[in-house]
Structures are given as C-alpha cells and as structure tokens.
Queue: 2 jobs
Job 1
Amino acid sequence: MSDIILETRSINKYFHDPVKFQVLNDINFSIKKGEFVSITGKSGCGKSTLLYILSTMDTDYEGELFIDGESMTKLPHNGLAKVRNEKIGFVFQFHYLLPEFTVLQNVMLPALKLGKFEPAAIEERAMSLLKRLDIHDQARKGANRLSGGQKQRVAIARALINDPVLIMGDEPTGNLDSKNSKIVFEIFKELVAEKKQSLLIVTHDEDFARTTDRNIVMDDGRMVK
Amino acid sequence: MNTLNLSISKTLLMARLKQSVIAAAGVTFGIAMFITLVSFMTGLNKMLDSLILNRTPHIRLYNAINPNADQPVNRSAEFKNALNIVRSIKPSDSRTEIYNSTAIIQSLKSDSRVVAVAPKVASQVFYNIGVIDLNGLVNGIDVSQEMKYFSFADYIIKGDAYDLNRISNSVILGKGVADKMMSQVGDVIHVTSAKGDQLSLKVVGIFQLGLATVDDVQSYASLETTQKLLGKPKSYYTDIQVKLTNIDDAPAVAKEYALRYRTDAEDVQTANAQFESGTKVRNIITYAVSITLLIVAGFGIYNILNMMIYEKMDAIAILKATGFSSSDVKNIFINLSMIIGFIGGVAGLLTGMLLTMLIDQIPFKTAALPAISTYPINYDFTYYIIGALFAMATTYIAGYFPAKKAARIDPVVIIRGK
C-alpha cells in the first residue's frame, strides 16, 4: 500500500442557497502518512468547508475523495460513519461535547462504538489521554461544567481515543490560551512522530502553521500554495 | 453494541429528567384518559344492556295461540286441488303446552351452542285482595337455573329465591304487586287461577326488575307450584328458555329450532328490537369517543416526543461525527422514545385503573337495577392491552420519523446550521 493517507481528485462544491455559489474549485491534493499539514486562509475562503468534506461529514460535493486508499465518494452513510469512527479523529472549532455525559464518557464513546477493546481497557486509555492533556482531575465531571479551554482539550482526547490514522482539526487551538495551545501543539507533534498519524489542521495562527510540515494556503475556494 | 446505544439513550433521558418526565406524563395522561373513559362508558353500556338482557332468554320456545293452518277443507279430497279460502278463522282450544318438552330439553342440552336451558310455566292468575281480584301472571321457574344463568338473584330485593324450592306453595312477588296487596315476606296471599281454582301462597321474597309493567303484574313461583296452580302434570311447560354461548347467533338458531321442534321460537333481538338499536347507537358512540381519544392522545404524544428529539439534534450531529452510524442514531432515538412510551404507558394504565376504581366508588342508585349501588365500570383487560399497544406504537412512530430524518442528513448540516 502506498503511503498516501488522503487524496482528493478535483473536488468542487457549491452552495445553492440563496444563489448558486462555488465554494471549492478543483481541489487536488494528498496527505502522506505521518505528515503534519496545516491549511490557512482568509475566513470565508472555504477551508472549513473543505475540511468537512475531507472528514466525510459532508457528502454534497463533486469529485472524488480517497482515505487510506479507499474511495469515500460512493460509500453509504453507515460506511462513512465506520470510517469516521475508525480512521478519523476530528476536533471542532467549538468543542461539541455531549453535555449529557461526563468528560470521561465523552472521550470513551467513540471507542465503545468501535468495540475493539473491553470497556475497562478503554477507560484506562481515556484516562491516560486526559492525563496527558492535564484534565484528568475533571474526568468525572459533567462535560458542560468545564471551561471552554478544558472542553477543547476533552474534544482532542476524544479525537485521539481510537488511534485514527488521520486527525483533523478546525481551529482546534482557537479557543485556547497560548500555554494550552502549546501543549496541544506538542501533543500533535508527538503523535505524528510516534504513531505515524497524519494531521490536517485548519488554523488562523500563522506561527502555528509555520511549524507544520506543510502549509496550504487557500483563497477563494482554490489552493494557492 | 446495542447495549451501548441503550445506555446512551438512558443517559440522554436522565440528563434532561424534567423534560423526559413531562414527555412521559403526556403519554400517561392520554392513556389514562382512554382507559378511564372507555371503561366507564362500556360499563354504563353493559349496565343498560343487562337491564334487558339479564332476564331475557336468548331464545324462547313457546306455542303461540294461532288459528290452525290445517283447516278441514284442505283435507277433503274434493277440494284438494282448489284454492280454499276460509274467512274469519278463530284459534281452536289449542294447548299452550310445549309438546314432548322433556325430549326437547334433552336435545337442547346436548347442543354445543347452548349454555343453559330453563323451562318455564306461565300462568294467568288473579291476586285476591279482599273483594278485589287483581290481574296477574305467575311464572313457574327452575330457581337454580334462573339464579345461575339469568341473574335472578340480582333482582330479589327481599327474601331468598331458594325458599321457592324449600317451601311448598311459595311465591316471590313483584314490588308493585306486593305494594298493592300490602304484603310482606312471610305473609300468605290468595290467588285464583284462570280456570277458577284457588290456592294460598306464602310470600318468601319480593323482586324488582325496574320495569313497572313487570313489577306490577308478575310474580315467581317454583315449577311445581305453578303446575299445581294450573292442575297440570310435571312435564307441562309453556316456555323453554335457552341461553346461547353467542347472543349474535340467536336469530339463526331460533329459526332452526322453530323448524326442528315445531314450536314458535323468538330470539332476543326480535323480542327487543328497539332495545337492540339503542345498543347499536351506544356502541357507535363508544367507538367514536375512544377513537377520538386515541387520536388526540396520539397527536399529543407525537408532538412532545418530536420536539424533544429536535432539541437533541446537536447530540445527533456529534454522535455521527464521532462515528455512530445512521442506524445507531435511529436506534438511540427510538429507544429513547420507547422508554418514554413504556414508562408513560404503564403509568397511564395504572392511573386509568385508579381513576376507574375511584369512579367505581361513587354512589349510583337506580330502582331499575337493585344490584348496582355505584357507577358501573367495565374492567375489561382488552382495553388495557389496546392502551399499552397504542402507547408503544405512537411513541415508536414519534421517535421513528424524526430519528430517520436526523439519521439521513450529513452531520455538517446540523453543525453548520448553528
């Protein structure tokens, strides 16, 4: 198998409401295994939209998407859910935790869904992830009782729980202070180095983008660099 | 796998306990109202039905007094092929006795459609009150059969019906008759039969059917006493009353019996035609009300659950983003509404039962039915099954449609919609 983890072939996307408008224009690129890629660009340039398509959460596009050598374009909804569960970890701009569940449960849920390990082993792993992100003391609290920065770190732990081959983030450090941003960034770097996981991060933070392996700049729905 | 979905459903429910309780209360209210109203309405209907049906046999075999169809002229060889018209025929002194009654009763008892057979002797009498003779009717009955199958005991307001068997020459008077004769239980009254024979009868009880035409005229005695009154032998019966397993068969079976036993046979539907149509109308009203109740309850349940699920759209998007499939999401939300349906439904059945039991305690006195002292309730288990099934079905539907819709859309549509 090739070492390309994600590949797109001329992806176009349109918004139809209120008028037809092309958001993404002929996106062709790929990410190698263990590569740390960042996407920057002005707001409204379509970088978040692209990320949602790449994460398979948006299926309304033209072109073709491959993840881990497999085409996502023809896959049914349940197949995509399986790919998201197993291969992709996603960190949203806003944490998107389930407020009904505890911090620990939020982190554990994707792993329980995957069902590869026993619940006890999953809990242990979730705790070690939380510890690494320095929020293990909040593990038993309800997810809605945490501060914004803490929630974001829980969301990162949730994205990592299943050891995905690809981690995507939509401004994952956007809500964090510089200290926490640094912690997250370090963790991301370690992951790439240790487990050969690939990272694709949309960010505003130019400093952050400079330290990644590759920085893609988007403008008006195209990749310009 | 499914236990994971179930535990997610439970957590979602428990997290917004107040909202879940309100949703369940919606189900409870609908189902409780259905159970209460249907039990009460059918209870009232049954009471009204029993007003007539309790004391009416499903089929009555008797010999009507009719002119003989077989007139002598028809037997004459001379007019064999002629059209014979005889005007103004009077009925001959034909017997009102049922011929071969013992054999007929035997044959009826072996019919699988028949629950009970009770012979009866009806005799015209005069009640003697001083110099006044009051017109009346004594029914000779088989007391134990009447008690068992025709709820005779319900209508005895004083005395004991079995005394008819224990004490010879005893009688149970209608309330109206007893009032007119000013007689109490234990008194002796005198009656004169249509043929002029006199007999002293001991009053052992008083009955009240609630129909003045009956209570003011009729009285009951044992078969033997009535036969004695008429001066007839033991096998003399004027009526044979039949109770069937299925009352709706009565008209057809009555026709069959009329042919087979060569007597007249009257079914309860024909005998009480006006009552039949009353029952039909009441049944239609009951069905209409219960269906309306179910529909109203159904919409209430559907609305509450629908809103509840739409409020949880966020959770749906997050679950899908982290790898839960459409079927998982559907599963989780159907579980959620079914749990509400189950808990609300069970609570509704119990509340309905409590409410009906409460209504059952409210005093309700009617002269027509001495056996009834409180409002009648029909504790039919079928309504509970219908209620339970309905609660589960509506909550399933209420969960299914929004869940299906949520399962189909891309998670990003929900997320971006924020």
Note: The interface with chain A takes residues 1, 4, 8, 11-12, 14-16, 314-315, 317-328, 407-408, 410-413, 415-416 of chain B (CB under 8 Å).
Job 2
Amino acid sequence: MPESPLHDAAFMGSMRTDMLRFAQIQLRDATLAEDAVQEAFAAALDGARDFAGRSALKTWIFGILRHKIIDLIRHQSRHTNISAYCDEDTALDEAFEALFKENEHWAPHTRPRAWGDPEASLQQRQFWDVFEVCLHHLPENTARVFMMREFLEFGTDEVCTTLNISASNCHVILHRARNGLRRCLETGWFAAPAKGAPQ
Amino acid sequence: MNCKQSTRLLSEALDRPLKGSETLRLRLHLITCRGCRNYKAQMGFLREACSALREKTEKTEKMEDT
C-alpha cells in the first residue's frame, strides 16, 4: 500500500506553496494568507483520514482553505465598508468614461479591438505574470468583490450577502473591476509590442 | 441603447439573467456595433482566465511539469 501523501514532505511542501499563492491572490496580504494556510493545515491534520491519493487530499485541503478565506473576508467586511469609494476607484471610472464620446458610444480610437486568439495566451507563462499584476492593480475593495465572484466562484447573491452590499452596487463594482482588468490586459499584453516574442 | 449601457449589460449578463427586453435591446445593439462585440468576447475571456488561474493554482502538477 502506498504511503499516505500526508507523510510525503516534498508533496506537502509544494502544496503549501500553492495554497499560499491561492490565499494571497484572494486576500492580497501575506500575513493573512499565511494565517489562513496555517489554520487550514491544522484543521486538515486534525481531521486527517486516509486519502486515495494526492489529488483527493489536495482537493480536500483546498476546500478547507477556501472556508478559512471566506471566514477572514466575512470578518473583515464587518469592520470595513466594502462599497466605500476610493481614489483609485474614481480613477478607474474616469478612465472608463474617457473611452466614450459625448453620446456614450465608443470613440473611434478607443473602440475595443479583437484580442485575436486570447486562449493561446493562457498557455504562456508571461501572460500569467501580466494577469496577476493587473489583478493586483485593482483597488482593494473592488478586487475583493471581483475575486469572490470570479476566483472563488461565488454566486452574485452570495457575494452581496457575505460582503453586505446591495445587488446593484455589486454590479457596479464588478463592471468597474472588469473594465479595469480589460484595460490593463489590453495595454500590458494584447497591445504590448513584446507580446508573443520568442522565449 | 448606447455603447456605455451595452457594456454595463454585458458585464451584468455574467452575474444575473438579463430580462427579455434587455436581451433583445442588447442583441440589436450588438448586430451593429463591432466594438461592443469585441468587448463581449473580452468579458467572456476574463471569466475564462480567472477560472484557469484558479485551476492552475489548485492543480497538483505545476504547469511546467506537464
């Protein structure tokens, strides 16, 4: 019988790295991410049982981590006003407004152009570097809402309830986040001269 | 419908089911507006990329090993 993955130090180490990355992408705070991972590990080891294999263990432990992250977000949202509007949000909105003519149609030079074959980018490591930088550039509260929706894959209702914001506010914030991300990817990747350069 | 309203609905369509009248107006707008058609595809790509990022982070094998 193969040894339990729980005793495979190399595997547990690499999983820890992945968990930290996962938590940091969502929480954007190294200390909080570290806490969430520690707690998830502790809870996982407490309830340790036999796993058929590494992926079963990993799925289980990531499920625990996800809950820890949600707890932290829920806790934070009681002390901060997620819908509070910061200067960076204003800047994102102004940049978006600037794309339109007075009649609120695209200006000729800002009209969105096709991104070619964007799926091919998903295979390139440099794309993911740009993507994570762009996520990180989103204002904190805006990113929180967006990441809960798109990274943790919560339903919109769950996001609103957990963060205690109205549905319409939620839609405004998600639209802002997507516009910010779209613009950042456009300038940082899809329209960047170095894109697709031989590695 | 103008382009700014269309972008709002294209984003909201990812978060809630649109009403029949909204879908209809949006469809009519998209027929004549290439910019908004591109925007729509880009919104879909953002979702796909976030989902891929999640999978990539959770997967046991690192990308470079596969």
Note: Chain B has one domain: 3-58.
